[in-house]
Task: structure prediction
Amino acid sequence: MTTDNGAGRYEFRVKGHLASRWAAWFDGMSLTNESDGTTSIRGPVTDQAALHGLLQRLRDTGLPLISVTQLDPSTTTPRRNVT
Result:
C-alpha cells in the first residue's frame, strides 16, 4: 500500500558497496551489493518522516546517492521515480 504520506516499499541505490553490517543502521532493510559497483537498499518505509530519516542516514555514509525508487507494493519492481 502506498499513500501520500510516503509509506510504501522503496529502493535506494548508492554508488559503492556497503557491508551487510550496515543493514542494522538502515532499520533492517536488505542490502545488495550489485556487480556494477552500487548497493541497493530495499525495504518498507512507514511514512514521510521515516523516508527523510533514511535519506539523512544515506547522506551520512558519504556515498553518492544514485536513485530513490518507490516499489510497487505487490512486487519488487519500480513503481515510479521519486528523485
